Amino acid sequence: MKNLGIILVVIGLVMMVWTGFNYVTRERVVDVGPVHIDANKDHPVQWSPILGGVILAAGIVVMVANKSKN
After folding, report:
1. Spatial distance between the Cα atoms of 19 and 51, rounded to a whole number of angstroms
2. pLDDT, tens only, 14-39
3. Quick check: 70 pLDDT over 70?
4. Dihedral angle over CA of 27, 30, 34, 40, nearest 10
5. For residue 68, what are the CA distances in angstroms to 4, 10, 58?
């Protein structure tokens, strides 16, 4: 359980610092015979830093609960 708490704390910290990322895909816009035109399309993935704080707090609770059991 201690490992789970540490993992949650690390994930929570990372989510609070980096609030999202983008990934790019290539899409075919025009496909007429031998003519092909492609376009890059951005796909943003965003989350609230509050979610990172909740996960961080959950990790701390798990670690504290684990210490009290031992």
Report:
1. 10
2. 999 999 999 999 999 999 989 999 99
3. no
4. -30
5. 16, 21, 15
Separation CA 21–CA 19 (nearest Å):
7
Which DSSP category does 62 fall into? H
Is residue 11 exposed (0-12), middle (13-18) or buried (19+ Cβ within 10 Å)? middle
Polymer length in residues for the chain: 70
The values of phi and psi at residue 38, to 5°, are -110, 155
pLDDT band at 62; cut points 50, 70, 90: very high
pLDDT surpassing 90 at residue 66: no
